[in-house]
Amino acid sequence: MSDTKPNDELNTAKAFSSTDKNPTNIMPEKLNLNSKLQFECHPGVSCFTACCHNIKIILTPYDILTLSKRLDMEPNEVVTEYTEPTYLEKTDMPGVQLKLVGEKRACPFVTPAGCTVYTDRPSACRYYPIGMADFHEGGTDDAKEEKFFFIVKEPHCKGHEEPKKWTIGEWRADQGVDVRDEMNKEWLRLVMRRKSFGHQATLSEAAKRMFFMASTDLHTFRRFIFESSFLDTYEVDEQTLEKIKEDDIELMHFSFKYLANTLFGAEGMTIKQDKLQSKIEEIKARQEKSLLEAEKEYEELKAERDRMRAEREAADNQ
Ligand code: SF4
Ligand code: SF4
């Protein structure tokens, strides 16, 4: 599969969360970092924590990592305890979303006093109510990019009635979303690539399982690198190996590169020469075997046809 594609659109508001699918809640105005925003969310708003109920919060690999550190749990324990499976962006790519609890379908981290993991809350909780659309042509880093912001104004959210005015840039800095953008970008791009290809291209079950494992359980992904035949197959320099052995963020970025390569044929991973050679020989041997089988089948059919012809001629001569 090639690395090219028509157009990727990263849409943070759509990709990470949703409460209300009504598109009329999206204000039809393209905004930039200097655009003005009148909005504030604080414990004094009448709707405080309303948006932490009955909502779909997709967790990105970075969200899972930060939550696991906050909760002092392994990433896979966070996934088991607090999430349930979902599909990402109407594709067949498997992911996880926060598992809502109780009659009110509350986020597992919400209390009447607010969010118990606030400083480590997921990306979706930080973006709301500003969505970002990022059109990225061609799928490579130097491709033409157009980014803009838009406001989501849902009737239940009273933060829009608060007097505080700031720019989108100031609001984003306050929410710490720039780091999230950077951490989530390549992963979200994988999902958008899948979405752009649609169902014309098939993704094997093994590829989907690998995507899920790398996205939700980086520590198992680390064992896959260091304890399987991975390093016999791929060239990975010593410096990178040292980094990904210890550093979860480095490992996460490495996993994005590996997934882009194995799922979509993107550059960035090199297969070892001897592995490549043995793979070529394996393919050649398979082709030769198929050719021999086809030839054998042809010979058998020919023999059968000759036999039938001989029988017919013998019958005609009687
Ligand atoms: S993680 Fe925190 S901010 Fe996000 S939905 Fe849950 S309680 Fe609300
Ligand atoms: S103001 Fe909006 S973002 Fe804040 S708690 Fe209310 S609904 Fe949620």
Question: What do you see in this structure?
Answer:
The protein is 49% helix and 15% strand. It has 12 helices and 13 strands. Helix 10 packs across helix 11. A 4-stranded antiparallel sheet has the order 2-4-6-5. The N terminus is likely disordered. It has 3 domains: 191 residues, no CATH class; 71 residues, no CATH class; 46 residues. It is α+β, with helices and mostly antiparallel strands and 318 residues long. The site of one iron/sulfur cluster (SF4) has 10 residues, from loops. The site of one iron/sulfur cluster has 12 residues, from loops.
Please state roughly what percent of the residues sit in beta strands, choosing from under 5%, 5-15%, 15-25%, 25-35%, 35-45% or over 45%: 15-25%
Give a short account of the largest sheet: 4 strands, antiparallel
The helix content, as a percent range, equals 40-55%
Would you tell me the structural class of the helices and strands?
A: alpha+beta
Q: Average pLDDT value?
A: 86
- How are strands sequenced across the largest beta sheet? 2-4-6-5
**Rg from alpha-carbon coordinates:** 27 Å
Number of domains: 3
Distance between the termini: 62 Å
The set of bound ligands, ions and cofactors reads: iron/sulfur cluster
Order of helices and strands: EHEEEHHEEEEHEEEHHHHHEHHEH
Shape: elongated
Q: Total strand count, please?
A: 13
